[in-house]
Amino acid sequence: MRELAVVKELEGDIVLLEKARTEACSTCGSKNSCSVSLSEKKVTIKAMKNGVEVHSGDTVEIETGNLSATRVSMIVYGIPLAVFLVTLIAMNTIFGSEVLALGTAFASIVVVYALIAVYDRKNREKLMPKIIRKVELPDGFIVR
């Protein structure tokens, strides 16, 4: 999805953008890289510069990732839960001890979240919104 935003701050290759909050924010795939508050009317988004030269106050077109909230939920909650249950049942069958099976199942969750953290670090730049181009707006036009 492509949207317009205003550059607020530059931090190396990361740009802090600001735009008006819309109803689409609730289903946006990039909502984990922005700060959305129900009481605020503006949204602050972290985006990759993507080779576009921008300065504070510039209006830019950004492309947000297409990672759905359902997919993120499955990665963060579904996969660890499935691994926990499979490990709990398998270890209880193998060891015959519920305490040992429970300890092993909790250890498996730690491993799964460690793997998710590694995946996140490696793919964060691919999933972040990217600046496509700088946009020149007519006088009086406000980005909402």
What are the key terms here?
144 residues, alpha+beta, six-stranded antiparallel beta sheet, elongated
Measure the end-to-end span: 15 Å
Mean pLDDT: 81
| Biggest sheet statistics | 6 strands, antiparallel
The outline comes out as: elongated
Quaternary structure type: single chain
Order of helices and strands: EEEEEHHE
Low-confidence stretches at least 5 residues in length (pLDDT < 50)?
none
Q: SS-based structural class? A: alpha+beta
Q: Order of strands across the widest beta sheet?
A: 3-4-2-1-5-6
User: Total strand count, please?
Assistant: 6
Strand content bin: 25-35%
SS summary, helix count: 2
Radius of gyration: 21 Å
Residue share in helix: 25-40%
Question: What is this entry, summarized?
Answer:
This protein is an alpha+beta fold and 144 residues long.
What's the SSE blueprint?
Elements: E1 2-11, E2 14-20, E3 34-35, E4 42-48, E5 59-63, H1 69-95, H2 98-127, E6 130-135
Antiparallel strand pairs: 1-2, 1-5, 2-4, 3-4, 5-6
